[in-house]
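Action item from last week, closing it out:
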Amino acid sequence: MDNLYQALAPFYDALNRDVDYKTWADYAEACFTKYFPGKVDAVLDLACGTGRMTLELAGRGYDMIGVDASPEMLSVARERTEEAGLSDRVLYLCQDMCEFELYGTVEAVVCCLDAVNHVTDRAALSRCFHWVHNYLVPGGIFLFDVNTPYKFENVYGDRAYLLEEEGVVCAWQNDYHPRSHTCDFLISLFCEEGDGRYTRQDVCQRERMYSLRSLRRLLSENGLELLSVSGNFNFDEPRADCERYYIAARAVKE
């Protein structure tokens, strides 16, 4: 996965141009108001990537910390942050989302774009939730999303996809394993060089499907109370064909 994001970093936003970070941030703020009794000042964006969500929230006045394991993705995030004039509001840390360390607590943690599904080891995800709980203030809010069983079985499946943007072509073949509830993405990335030639890089990425029951258990084991599961940003109940769960949890501390 490190090799994938090293190659993908300059093109990541173009390939994810349909992601509506503004609406996502609106949902996050609605959750802050709905579930947190005080004022949210400091927010951790876990697995922040190129910092799109980090900057959206920083622009709304939050003190942001962005954590990501990819130096290349963080390089893009830092450059974008400087261009936006928000460097005084954002601290970026190059750390694994399952073994991160902060300098203090935050009122909220957000983790977007199914980053949780990329943690394929249950023990590792438990450690991630442990550290989220550790750095949240009492009653602090944890917001994340996951791809649903329906998406793994009916959208991912064993299908092939192709994305093309200026300077990059991304092709991948899905290989879903029902027994392990994992899906391998066999990805070929073609990147245009300065002389017009394309270089190719082949990598394999894996996601794991987590049931709501399993997520509830993992959250509870790490002191996090599940508050809501929504099928969209309007807090609607998930439908049978819902492709993404939006989950809100609260840190329970004495």
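Closing note: Residues 151 and 243 are 5 Å apart (CA to CA).
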